[in-house]
Amino acid sequence: MSTKETSMGFKPIEATSLTDLVELKLRDFLQEKKLKAGDSLPTEMEIAEALGVSRNILREALSRLRMLGIITSKKKRGMVLTHPDVLGSLEKVLQPQLVDKNTLHDIFELRLVLELGMADLLFMRIEEKHLEELDKIVKNDDSTNPSFRIKNEIAFHGKLYEITGNQTLKRFQSMLMPLFDFVLKTEKRVVTPKVSHANLVELIRKGNIDEFKKGMEEHLRPHLDALANINK
Amino acid sequence: MSTKETSMGFKPIEATSLTDLVELKLRDFLQEKKLKAGDSLPTEMEIAEALGVSRNILREALSRLRMLGIITSKKKRGMVLTHPDVLGSLEKVLQPQLVDKNTLHDIFELRLVLELGMADLLFMRIEEKHLEELDKIVKNDDSTNPSFRIKNEIAFHGKLYEITGNQTLKRFQSMLMPLFDFVLKTEKRVVTPKVSHANLVELIRKGNIDEFKKGMEEHLRPHLDALANINK
């Protein structure tokens, strides 16, 4: 945080509204007091008095912390700290019509990074039943219907994320999905990758992680080539 | 979203408070009207009337959208839609004392996935000046001071993220950093990886991406082994 002083000796206020400031003070308070999930907060009246702000402003700021999932209200115990749903608020803003073009592009790259990087977790945790589930998805792969093709693409890669056993990763991926339709439109032509979903399943069965990694790179090659042609 | 009906024929309300409900309705409104950054919103009074809620409740819900960076207030134009800072609210909740243990573990894995997966972007965008910057960081690598070692670790991997040119990825990484101290403590002993930072820079210079990927895997091997030993 900036501690630059203006010519009059004032420190600039980081927040842009009184509610922003109160929100910031509340979050600082939680951190300084090292409060953890399950701990109780002072009452609204006590906090409002301590900060010297109106109940309305305080309620707005508390409402933000409620949305973030940091606090909740419990009968008889008042406000209590909770484990936040870390991806909850990210989910609310990840909508194609809201996000700017550069961020959309960044997120598309992020998806490629995740798919290229998750091979180790995948090989660590894959079981026979997962291979059978992948087989089923791949069986439907030869459809020539484009919208079906996209559904199948999501089902296949979604299953890979699921197999990693990492709930946060899996949920992150499903949140990123709606953004890709939008980005894929900027890739002018659909190139069929040399390594298909069926090939990738074969490579997993074979059990050689390095070969699988190269296979995944080839599978994603059309997107990687499209990126390389964009001047960032 | 669930559309299950209860025995009396009511649809359950997804939101848990009136403010949650108003927030949801506002976000649905933006999506249905396909509003984009720069578009104006109706006035507070008009929205409060249309929803049949008090100005106080509406203000709480609007304050949440302000925090998400979806709306802002402009002189003479009233409330206007903006491009949200997608990682802004995630940053507010990613604090070690707030996040539950499973999520912390997931996020630590996510970091490994990112580091293993970003080689393609790295090789696509690395320039001579970046190699020189990496050399400088590596030169300080032989310190035996443990806290310096962590700083150097952050500097080296942070630089790799920076070189990918992906701002969202870079910022995401710097947000994840404070959580790792905490997770690293669960890895009982510090194992020196066979492939050092200096080796990784050599591999980048050599220009063979497959060798670099294997090198990065070896570099992260102690963490990967620690994961494999944890029953998820």
Automatic annotation (TrEMBL), chains A, B:
CDD domains xrefs: WHTH_GntR
Keyword hit for Cell inner membrane: no
Keyword flag Transcription regulation: yes
InterPro entries: GntR_C, TF_FadR/GntR_C, Tscrpt_reg_HTH_GntR, WH-like_DNA-bd_sf, WH_DNA-bd_sf
Name used for this protein in its record: GntR family transcriptional regulator
Lineage, highest ranks first: Bacteria, Pseudomonadati, Bacteroidota, Sphingobacteriia, Sphingobacteriales
Keyword entries, A-Z: DNA-binding, Transcription, Transcription regulation
Top-level taxon: Bacteria
HTH gntR-type domain: residues covered: 16-84
GO molecular function ontology, one term from the record: DNA-binding transcription factor activity
Organism: Sphingobacterium cellulitidis
